[in-house]
Amino acid sequence: MTQILVLNGPNLNLLGSREPEHYGRDNLETIEKRTKEIAQEFDFDIEFFQSNTEGTLVDLIQEAGKCAVDFIIFNPAAFTHTSVAIRDALKAVNIPFIEVHLSNIHNREEFRRNSYFSDIAIGTISGLGAIGYELAVLAAHRYLSDDTRQK
Ligand code: CA2
User: Fold this and answer.
1) Running along the chain, 151 residues long, what does each successive block of 10 average in pLDDT?
2) pTM for this predicted structure
């Protein structure tokens, strides 16, 4: 069975409580439920994690490398703009991943425009809100079914 890991970075546990103008009104639990429903349609085995700690995210990525995870959907949150350590972990495990952001990181503060992940991701979804996670599952399915891609 195809294994998908969804990782969420710092403060995303607060979703739904504040800043709805940037992040919408759905909480992470609702997003997880909807994303799992889409994943089931593709017979994906999907796991969700959220952590406020950089080292924990590095550990989860390293673990994914050992557990034959096929694809990662990742909202690194503020670590998007700061974390060489998480970038290195993703490069080390070499698992294809999609970077997801609820808000459009390109129409906010200047410092959000830089991502340590976009250039090593399969693709980036930014600014579409919670549906971005569901779209990432669909994109993962297409990507993993594509026989013409380089393996
Ligand atoms: O748009 C996104 O998904 C972000 O990854 C969210 C991060 C932000 O640092 C990135 O630039 C873009 C922030 C997540 C914080 O989430 C909160 C949710 C509710 C209330 C406060 C923070």
Assistant:
1) 98 90 92 98 98 98 97 98 98 98 96 98 97 98 87 67
2) 0.96
Please, what sign has the CA dihedral across residues 91, 143, 99, 72? negative
Residues counted in the chain: 151
Active site residues per annotation: 23, 101
- Residue 83 identity (one-letter amino acid): S
Separation between Cα atoms, residue 75 and residue 79, nearest integer Å: 9
Can you tell me the distance from the alpha carbon of 90 to that of 45, in angstroms, rounded to the nearest whole number?
20
Q: What is the longest distance spanned by two Cα atoms in the chain?
A: 43
What's the CA gap between 128 and 24, in Å, rounded?
Answer: 10
Amino acid identity of residue 62, one-letter, is: Q
Of the candidates 68, 73, 79, 89, the one whose C-alpha atom is nearest the C-alpha of residue 124 is 73
Q: In a mutational test of the pocket of ligand 1, which residue from 102, 104, 117, 124 has the highest number of ligand atoms less than 8 Å from its CB?
A: 102
Strands in 71-75's sheet, in edge-to-edge order, are 45-50, 3-8, 71-75, 97-101, 123-126
